[in-house]
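Re: that backbone. Tokens:
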């Protein structure tokens, strides 16, 4: 049975952008995203592109395709835009796709076959491709991180973390949960929050390794820092609003090393800060031991990088692992401060 599939793509490209080259790359990625869908072998689909207060050039790109365009005047967040698109959808299956990913020609067929064969399954998660096709070391690290920790090297069957690079969900289920939480600003942790609500309602998020998409991104280390701080700050506040979400996430495979890594980085920061005011006995040895433990707990990840990308990539990954964990700790502190001191729940 060829089910009707509604593909919903929120997009936001601001009018002003400091770097012209960055804007051009982002718009080209958006065009590739839309073009890839049109090449699909599976034809029983509709595309609903939702402009979340986006610029004129991005809207002109959508108008080149036979897709439905919805324009929201004010930038209201990815979750809000997705909900607006879902309200006019006609498909039994909703596919939420980010505007910077490229699907394969058989992606929609794979989704249709999955739901036909698994009548009782309601949510399907796609994965990022781990191919070495990113010019930026920062991009390559982040995709490898997602591939290894979120998607278990493409071997996991289920996940506790929902990511809107590509997700497919039955329309009735999505509507019953009233969609994404629209209180999140921009594109943040609204996808994770929906995933946690689904799990708490008794649903299972299945992973399909065949649904691997290419992430068409090109950002440097500064953008990486900004991105992680934004997401992790909002995620911390989400966990504070509902403690159950943290428990659910901690059960995800491979997350034990991440949690331990965060604790170790926190201990190192505290030790270095305390040593500025008074001398800590065996300070150097303590820092050395903490670093050795840090490296050891990530050895499996480094081994994965070494055999898939080589020695130099492994060295770079060690640096980014430290940076990533440090940013998450800083963002968590921001989240705690914003939540309890500034009283900003979102």
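Recovered sequence:
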């Amino acid at each position: 049975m060829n089910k009707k599939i509604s593909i919903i793509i929120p997009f936001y490209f601001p009018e002003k952008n400091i770097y012209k080259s960055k804007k051009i790359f982002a718009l080209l990625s958006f065009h590739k995203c839309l073009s890839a869908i049109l090449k699909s072998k599976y034809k029983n689909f509709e595309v609903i592109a939702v402009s979340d207060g986006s610029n004129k050039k991005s809207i002109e790109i959508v108008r080149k395709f036979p897709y439905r365009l919805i324009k929201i005047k004010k930038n209201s967040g990815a979750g809000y835009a997705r909900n607006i698109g879902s309200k006019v959808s006609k498909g039994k299956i909703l596919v939420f796709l980010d505007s910077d990913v490229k699907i394969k020609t058989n992606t929609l067929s794979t989704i249709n076959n999955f739901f036909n064969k698994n009548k009782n399954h309601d949510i399907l998660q796609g994965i990022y491709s781990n191919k070495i096709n990113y010019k930026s070391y920062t991009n390559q690290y982040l995709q490898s991180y997602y591939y290894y920790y979120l998607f278990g090297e493409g071997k996991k069957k289920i996940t506790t973390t929902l990511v809107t690079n590509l997700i497919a969900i039955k329309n009735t289920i999505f509507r019953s949960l009233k969609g994404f939480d629209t209180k999140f600003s921009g594109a943040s942790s609204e996808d994770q929050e929906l995933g946690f609500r689904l799990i708490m309602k008794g649903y299972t998020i299945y992973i399909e390794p065949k649904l691997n998409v290419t992430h068409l991104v090109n950002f440097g280390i500064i953008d990486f820092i900004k991105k992680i701080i934004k997401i992790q700050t909002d995620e911390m506040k989400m966990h504070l609003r509902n403690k159950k979400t943290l428990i659910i996430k901690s059960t995800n495979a491979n997350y034990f090393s991440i949690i331990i890594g965060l604790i170790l980085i926190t201990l190192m920061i505290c030790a270095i800060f305390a040593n500025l005011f008074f001398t800590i006995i065996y300070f150097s040895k303590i820092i050395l031991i903490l670093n050795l433990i840090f490296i050891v707990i990530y050895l499996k990840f480094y081994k994965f990088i070494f055999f898939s990308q080589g020695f130099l990539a492994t060295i770079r990954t060690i640096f980014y692992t430290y940076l990533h964990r440090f940013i998450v700790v800083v963002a968590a502190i921001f989240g705690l401060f914003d939540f309890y001191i500034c009283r900003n729940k979102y």
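Residues 249-341 form one domain. Strands lie at 5-11, 45-52, 68-72, 93-97, 101-102, 123-128, 158-159, 166-170, 205-215.
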